[in-house]
Design brief:
Blueprint (H helix, E strand, L loop, with lengths): L19 E7 L5 H12 L4 E3 L8 E8 L6 H4 L4 E9 L1 E3 L8 E4 L6 H10 L2 E5 L8 E2 L2 E2 H6 L9 E14 L2 E8 L5 H12 L3 E11 L2 E2 L6 H7 L5 E2 H8 L2 E3 L2 H8 L4 E2 L7 E4 L5 E8 L2 E7 L4
Family: Belongs to the pseudouridine synthase TruB family. Type 1 subfamily.
Protein name: tRNA pseudouridine synthase B
Enzyme class: isomerase
Amino acid sequence: MSDTSPPAPPTPPAPATPDGLVVVDKPAGWTSHDVVARCRRLLRTRRIGHAGTLDPMATGVLVLGVGRGTRLLGHLALTAKVYEATIRLGRTTTTDDAEGEPVADRPVEVGAGELAAGMAALTGAIDQVPSSVSAVKVNGVRAYARVRAGEDVVLAARRVTVSRFELLARRGTDLDVVVACSSGTYIRALARDLGAALGCGGHLTALRRSEVGPFGLAAAVGLDELAERGPAAVVPLGAAVAAAFPRRDVDLDQARDVAHGRWLPALGRSGPYGVFGPDGAVLALFEDRDETARPVVVFAPA
């Protein structure tokens, strides 16, 4: 007897991955590159990058660009960041954190007033020397790679801004702190410099990034959740730009000018802002320069 049952319906295609951003809660022990590689498999696209690395020891907010969203990353990397950290006084290490080898142990005899003064001195605009095992490039090679190759690396100081360096709790020699800072600030170096100022040494034992610009842990997804949600976890390009940058709406004629790479009248703003057409679609990132506004990123049609 022949089988007369109807054919099985075709398997629906997997939903397309939209352009935009994914805010990941990075797990401990993973490099930022590991997270990018995993997300490329989960979202089925190679075009993914990150807006600033997190050390393997660190957890928390890692902003990824997907598709045309990768064009936002260089601008998002410049935004302020917030961290929750634990600093252990009394020991210095080769890496300024718990993953390095101990260098020296000293007694900790630090009163509350000394601690407050030491933290206050590291608040505001400061000149900070990054850790020698940081990702800073020296003649095109990462500093940590030079250290691993046996080189003695001493990096130049750079100006950073620590807008908040607050003690949340003191547990013996451990300090639970929150740090709000500009891009390029190394929390390991902050721990090292606080310990040096207090005369006992110090290093970082835990680090969690809670905010990158407007994106916080409340918006972040773990890798397991990302595996379940897939493309639905991507913040679409227009929503991502509206969340991360000031907004400028233009009329149809100006939208055509933007599409053809023409300039717009300046608004008197500092920094990049999103330009949106009359239909609400994001067109570009612009930046004021004197009397004109010029494109820094133009989003081609999808």
